[in-house]
Amino acid sequence: MNVDGTPYRSIWYDEEASEVRVIDQRWLPHEFRIEPLRSRADFATAIRDMWVRGAPLIGATAAYGIAEEMRRDPSDAALASAAAELHATRPTAINLRWALDAMGLRSCAASRPERRAASRCVS
To answer: What's the pTM?
Structure first.
Protein backbone atom coordinates (compact mmCIF):
# COMPACT_ATOMS: atom_id res chain seq x y z
CA MET A 1 0.00 0.00 0.00
CA ASN A 2 1.06 3.60 -0.49
CA VAL A 3 0.77 6.12 2.32
CA ASP A 4 1.54 9.70 1.37
CA GLY A 5 3.45 8.39 -1.64
CA THR A 6 5.57 5.92 0.35
CA PRO A 7 5.09 2.19 -0.34
CA TYR A 8 4.58 -0.07 2.70
CA ARG A 9 4.04 -3.75 3.35
CA SER A 10 1.97 -4.88 6.32
CA ILE A 11 5.09 -6.48 7.83
CA TRP A 12 8.73 -6.10 6.86
CA TYR A 13 12.29 -6.35 8.08
CA ASP A 14 13.83 -2.91 8.38
CA GLU A 15 17.51 -3.38 7.49
CA GLU A 16 18.60 -0.01 8.86
CA ALA A 17 16.98 -0.57 12.26
CA SER A 18 17.67 -4.34 12.27
CA GLU A 19 14.13 -5.11 13.36
CA VAL A 20 10.77 -6.28 12.09
CA ARG A 21 8.08 -3.64 11.77
CA VAL A 22 4.33 -3.87 11.31
CA ILE A 23 1.52 -1.53 10.53
CA ASP A 24 -0.56 -1.56 13.71
CA GLN A 25 -3.99 -2.21 12.26
CA ARG A 26 -5.88 -1.41 15.45
CA TRP A 27 -5.70 2.28 14.58
CA LEU A 28 -6.67 2.12 10.92
CA PRO A 29 -8.23 3.95 9.15
CA HIS A 30 -7.96 6.94 11.49
CA GLU A 31 -4.25 6.74 12.28
CA PHE A 32 -1.26 5.16 10.57
CA ARG A 33 1.12 3.70 13.15
CA ILE A 34 4.17 1.55 12.65
CA GLU A 35 5.34 -0.61 15.55
CA PRO A 36 8.66 -2.44 15.93
CA LEU A 37 8.64 -6.11 16.92
CA ARG A 38 11.88 -6.85 18.71
CA SER A 39 11.22 -9.72 21.10
CA ARG A 40 9.25 -12.94 21.13
CA ALA A 41 6.78 -11.21 23.46
CA ASP A 42 6.31 -8.39 20.91
CA PHE A 43 5.39 -10.90 18.18
CA ALA A 44 2.98 -12.68 20.53
CA THR A 45 1.36 -9.38 21.53
CA ALA A 46 0.99 -8.30 17.90
CA ILE A 47 -0.89 -11.51 17.09
CA ARG A 48 -2.92 -11.81 20.30
CA ASP A 49 -3.96 -8.15 20.53
CA MET A 50 -4.77 -7.89 16.81
CA TRP A 51 -2.08 -5.46 15.74
CA VAL A 52 -1.96 -7.75 12.71
CA ARG A 53 -5.19 -9.02 11.19
CA GLY A 54 -6.05 -11.58 8.58
CA ALA A 55 -4.91 -15.17 8.38
CA PRO A 56 -1.96 -14.68 5.99
CA LEU A 57 -0.54 -11.76 7.98
CA ILE A 58 -0.89 -13.65 11.26
CA GLY A 59 1.06 -16.55 9.73
CA ALA A 60 3.74 -14.22 8.35
CA THR A 61 4.10 -12.54 11.75
CA ALA A 62 4.59 -15.92 13.41
CA ALA A 63 7.21 -16.90 10.81
CA TYR A 64 9.11 -13.65 11.43
CA GLY A 65 8.85 -14.31 15.17
CA ILE A 66 10.44 -17.75 14.80
CA ALA A 67 13.16 -16.34 12.54
CA GLU A 68 13.98 -13.60 15.04
CA GLU A 69 14.10 -16.13 17.89
CA MET A 70 16.45 -18.35 15.88
CA ARG A 71 18.70 -15.36 15.32
CA ARG A 72 19.00 -14.91 19.11
CA ASP A 73 19.02 -18.55 20.21
CA PRO A 74 19.03 -21.31 17.56
CA SER A 75 18.56 -24.13 20.08
CA ASP A 76 15.84 -26.76 19.88
CA ALA A 77 14.49 -25.58 23.22
CA ALA A 78 14.14 -21.98 21.98
CA LEU A 79 12.42 -23.17 18.80
CA ALA A 80 9.90 -25.27 20.73
CA SER A 81 9.28 -22.58 23.32
CA ALA A 82 8.79 -19.81 20.75
CA ALA A 83 6.43 -21.95 18.68
CA ALA A 84 4.37 -22.83 21.77
CA GLU A 85 4.14 -19.20 22.91
CA LEU A 86 3.13 -17.94 19.47
CA HIS A 87 0.61 -20.75 18.97
CA ALA A 88 -1.02 -19.94 22.31
CA THR A 89 -1.87 -16.43 21.07
CA ARG A 90 -4.54 -17.82 18.70
CA PRO A 91 -4.77 -21.60 19.08
CA THR A 92 -7.50 -22.00 16.44
CA ALA A 93 -5.80 -19.92 13.72
CA ILE A 94 -5.01 -22.28 10.85
CA ASN A 95 -2.45 -20.05 9.08
CA LEU A 96 -0.68 -19.46 12.38
CA ARG A 97 -0.35 -23.20 12.95
CA TRP A 98 0.72 -23.75 9.35
CA ALA A 99 3.45 -21.08 9.57
CA LEU A 100 4.75 -22.42 12.88
CA ASP A 101 4.80 -25.98 11.53
CA ALA A 102 6.58 -24.89 8.35
CA MET A 103 9.19 -22.89 10.26
CA GLY A 104 9.63 -25.76 12.72
CA LEU A 105 10.20 -28.32 9.97
CA ARG A 106 12.62 -26.04 8.18
CA SER A 107 14.48 -25.23 11.38
CA CYS A 108 14.58 -28.81 12.68
CA ALA A 109 16.32 -29.92 9.50
CA ALA A 110 19.04 -27.31 9.96
CA SER A 111 22.00 -27.20 12.31
CA ARG A 112 22.23 -24.40 14.89
CA PRO A 113 24.61 -22.27 12.76
CA GLU A 114 22.39 -22.87 9.71
CA ARG A 115 19.32 -21.74 11.69
CA ARG A 116 20.99 -18.50 12.68
CA ALA A 117 22.22 -17.85 9.12
CA ALA A 118 18.83 -18.70 7.57
CA SER A 119 17.01 -16.33 9.90
CA ARG A 120 18.91 -13.44 8.34
CA CYS A 121 17.34 -14.26 4.96
CA VAL A 122 13.73 -13.81 6.08
CA SER A 123 12.44 -10.56 4.65
So the answer is: 0.86
The answer to whether the CB of 20 falls within 8 A of the CB of 64 is: yes
Cα angle for residues 37, 47, 101 (degrees, 5° grid) = 95
C-beta of residue 28 within 8 angstroms of C-beta of residue 22: no
Q: What is the tally of structural domains in the chain?
A: 1
| Mean pLDDT value across residues 33-52 | 97
Closest CA to 90 of 53, 38, 122, 123: 53
The domain of 28 spans 2-119
Q: How far apart are CA 4 and CA 21, in angstroms?
A: 18
CATH of the domain at 6: 1.20.120.420
